[in-house]
Amino acid sequence: MKRRDFITLLGGAAAAWPLVARAQQPAVPVIGFLVSYSAATFAGGLVSVRQGLADQGYIEGGNLLIEYRYADLEFDRLPAMAADLVQRRVAVIFAVGSVRPAIAAKAATTTIPIVFLNGSDPIQLGLVTSLARPGGNVTGITQFGSELAAKRLELLHEMLPSAKRIAFLVNPNNPNNESDIANVQAAVRIIGVQLLVINVNREAELEVAFEKMLQQHTEALLVGTDPLFNAEQYGKLIVLTARHAMPAIFSQPPPAGTYRGELMSYRLVDDMGRQAGGYIGRILKGDKPADMPVLQPTRFLLAINLTTAKALGITVRLLYPTPRPWHGQD
């Protein structure tokens, strides 16, 4: 063999080595995030989910890629977004921001694992067959929003025992709407107050809703759990409750930078985003959704805004002579 031919053959073989090596390396998994909110609104929750993934050894941009689909509260876009993620053959779909993404994802695939995070009863809505053993390709974290809505009504009544007419702000297009109203109405019958259900499905209807409350002599407001009331419109809700001196209880703390004007909030304090990220990581490692129990919250926090209470003329009796110091943890 001539020396030139030998060099040519050697060069060709060397050029092929990296290709062989790359072919032997495991493919980086791709997961899909199907989110009701906008990217800006979900930014805080995304941090928690990434922490959960990191707990399982997965780092976005390193050994994991994420395809993001944000509906920006335009829920009719979710089915097409879910279908797109299925077409891209993602390894897992994470559905968050109300039950709607989970419903859209389940309708789009029966094989790709789905992890949900929402406040719905997953059995009632057909996402899983049981909490202990979900079956199928779906599991996740439930916050049981309907039961918490009734609890919030009870807390609001304890704060305002003289209030006889309470409004319940709901989104009629939310799949949980019927269950939420039924649970709150059951609590109303025990407490002995009148309930005014106010339907709002877009921001433009909020001012009209408050006008209706005033016309009906509403004395307090229970804000339902829905992305419409927990995202970009939260600030407007706070402004309207302050303008009309309407005592209100919310299901979420305000987003960062939002004016703190709500009277009360009763919410979960478990880091459920981190738990969801951990579940996604476990599935990537081989766990099956059918065998992974649906997780439930265990810790809750009641927050009362004393400044707002004073402005509304409400006296709050503290269990402690002075507020307990806060050290950055719930």
How do you describe this structure in short?
The chain is of the alpha/beta class and 330 residues long. Helices cover 40% and strands 17% of the residues.
For the biggest sheet, the summary is:
6 strands, mixed
- How large, in whole angstroms, is the Cα Rg? 25 Å
How would you sum up the global shape? elongated
Alpha-beta content class: alpha/beta
Count of DSSP strands: 11
CATH architecture name of the largest domain: 3-Layer(aba) Sandwich
- What's the CATH topology name of the largest domain? Rossmann fold
CATH superfamily of the largest domain: Response regulator
Instruction: Please count the helical segments.
Output: 11
The CATH class designation of the largest domain is Alpha Beta
> Which regions contain 5 or more consecutive residues with pLDDT less than 50?
3-24, 321-330
Distance between the termini: 77 Å
**Whole-number total of structural domains:** 2
